[in-house]
Amino acid sequence: MPKFRAPGRVNIIGEHTDYNDGFVLPFAIDKYVEVEINRSSQYVFTSEKMKEQVRLQKYERLGKWTDYLMGVIWALEKLGYKTEPVEVNVSSNLPIGAGLSSSAALEIALAYGLNEVFNLKLDKMKLVEVGVKAEREFVGVRCGVMDQFTAVFGKKDHAIFLDTSTLNYEYVPLELKDFELALVDSNTKHELSSSEYNKRREECEAVLNKLGKGSFRQVTYEDLPKLDDVLRRRARHVLDENKRVSLAVRALKRSEFALLGSLLFESHVSLRDLYEVSCDETDFIVGFLKGELGILGARMVGGGFGGSILVLARKGYLGGVFERLEESYLRNFKKRPSLIRIQSNDGVHMVM
Ligand code: ADP
Ligand code: MG
Fold this sequence. Notes:
352 residues, alpha+beta, Alpha-Beta Plaits, 4-stranded antiparallel β-sheet, globular, binds adenosine-5'-diphosphate, binds magnesium ion
């Protein structure tokens, strides 16, 4: 039986820009979600990771992991693509909730697989649309487009410079030479994370309302004085961060890794002080890394209030640095971080 495999992703830079019509620079990674699909008389979803098998009715929403799968079936039908009942077996080596976007990988693996099994003839952009629609409208998460886009369009040894307002994109060679990217998971997730995420989205909408503009792309630095303190800082982050994405693309193309690293540090400071989505644990890790030889840059990734730190390091340094970090983090927070090594990889595809 064929299986369909979709990757997780890491976003090098461009945090909290993807729902603000901004720029992002993600790449697909070598950790993935796989689905095996069999036609059946009923819907039966199994996940190794969830240690669960669930039988459900068409479009049944259970408020758990099965919603991501049923959401895809629902979104396909809403867009005019008919499917029939299937059994779906999910397996995965992608950590959940570590900011690697397991949800989009799950959606895209299924959407791609159903496209093959039922010969629906969706193109790549449609697959992205199906995943986003499933997550936004069926699961009920106000996600941007980056995660699903990367799960579909990812390309080994390349990052994707994506304009989320037009969906124009450019593959940027990800040739890190003597350097490497890795993640340190703080193994922390503060309760605040989803409520504050929604609040930031509302604040960004408030910026647009206040300025009478339809898209964040029309917001300029001249607009900042028209905003009150909090909104001004949120907007400032988005404007600066978009600029940093462009600079990071140029740095990557020119192999200017020191510059790329400093952009990561700057991004973190902005997320901490202007966008205010970091927390003690992630600030601690980035602060620690900043003082270490062989570390060029680091920043929190994802929604915030915990999650992972992306690190740009000279090859050969990370192991030792991580050991020292682990000790120090344990002393301060009574728990351990984890080191997640990552490589770039291709987008969704079939595996035998
Ligand atoms: P992430 O940053 O990993 O995307 P989300 O909260 O957006 O975090 O999505 C995680 C959710 O996706 C899980 O709670 C679960 O519902 C679903 N999911 C991810 N991987 C699997 C899997 N292997 N099996 C079943 N459900 C999964
Ligand atoms: Mg997700």
